[in-house]
Design a protein that fits this description.
Structural class: alpha/beta
CATH class of the largest domain: Alpha Beta
Helix content: 40-55%
Oligomer: single chain
Radius of gyration: 24 Å
Strand content: 15-25%
Number of strands: 14
Order of helices and strands: HHHEEHEHEEEEHEEEEHEHEEH
Number of domains: 3
CATH architecture of the largest domain: 3-Layer(aba) Sandwich
């Protein structure tokens, strides 16, 4: 296997992570046929099957699972060694992979990511958004973005700003026609945009005042799982929406939406950039973290 280099090992780990030859081939920039041939070569050299595969599914064999568990840490060390060698120059370059949930990505895209790219044009940022909490090391990410309370304790966290808050909003015309809720239970008499969590469960709107939390299982004409879609529905006058304040800040300032129950939506934990400790980070990694620290300090000064 040494004659072919690391591509076979990368192929095995990619298929194990993605559970699909097609998805892994796309990640590696290979055709499905080429990837299948690579795996066939590895299995012949090892004398054991690594994957059980049918036309509809792919899964690791027991031998394959053991192989992946042993190879993955070694391959990470090799990648880190190669990244360290590449980072000896002073010019940030290469790819930074960042995992974030969608709301957090929207908040940091312009002030951090796009600003960073303008300053360092030789860097490519691969920003992946998803609702689930992932192990950024195991899944090949350099950095993660989550609220402070969701950052794993073994990670280094960089606050990206002041505490955030939720906002309950609707159009002025909706409130003129239906009245304004004064306390959270009033929402049960209103049309609300329901929220579906990544696991498929409905989200109960969370409120708190004077240390007393309240959860409301709202009713309404539509259930959505993406804030940008919910914003469209609210702006169209369908009902009341529940958002991170940053997602509707401009609409509130412009008068397109009005906020209610603000005394029931106190500040919550700030966003954080987080990453595992690194002895020899790349120039791009260092530059991004430094910019994130500056962004967080500037936001705290304005707060």
């Amino acid at each position: 296997m040494a004659r072919q280099g690391l591509i076979e090992l990368e192929a095995v780990l990619a298929i194990a992570a993605r559970g699909s030859f097609r998805a892994a081939a796309l990640d590696l920039g290979l055709s499905t046929t080429a990837l299948s041939n690579l795996i066939g070569t590895v299995e012949r050299q090892l004398g054991v099957r690594l994957f059980n595969r049918t036309t509809r599914s792919v899964s690791l064999t027991d031998a394959g699972r053991t192989f992946v568990e042993q190879v993955a840490p070694a391959l990470r060390d090799i990648r880190n060694a190669m990244a360290t060698a590449r980072s000896q120059g002073d010019t940030p370059s290469g790819t930074l992979r960042i995992n974030a949930f969608a709301t957090g990505a929207r908040e940091i895209l312009a002030p951090l990511v796009l600003r960073f790219l303008r300053r360092h044009p030789q860097v490519h940022v691969d920003l992946v958004t998803e609702g689930r909490i992932v192990d950024i090391v195991a899944e090949g990410f350099d950095l993660g973005i989550r609220t402070a309370e969701l950052v794993p304790s073994d990670m280094i966290a960089v606050p990206l700003g002041a505490p955030r808050s939720f906002a309950v909003v609707a159009t002025p015309s909706y409130f003129a026609a239906h009245g304004r809720p004064r306390v959270p239970p009033d929402l049960l008499g209103h049309h609300c945009i329901r929220i579906r969590l990544p696991n498929g469960a409905p989200y109960r709107w969370h409120f708190e005042k004077d240390g007393s939390p309240v959860q409301i299982d709202v009713e309404g004409p539509i259930t959505l799982d993406e804030a940008t879609l919910a914003r469209i529905a609210v702006l169209d006058g369908i009902g009341i929406g529940f958002f991170m304040e940053a997602d509707v800040r401009d609409d509130i300032a412009a008068g397109r939406l009005e906020r209610v129950l603000q005394d029931w939506t106190p500040p919550t934990a700030p966003l954080c950039l987080y990453y595992p400790g690194r002895k020899n980070p790349s120039a791009a990694f260092r530059a991004f973290v430094d910019m994130a620290r500056d962004l967080g300090k500037a936001a705290m000064r304005r707060a």
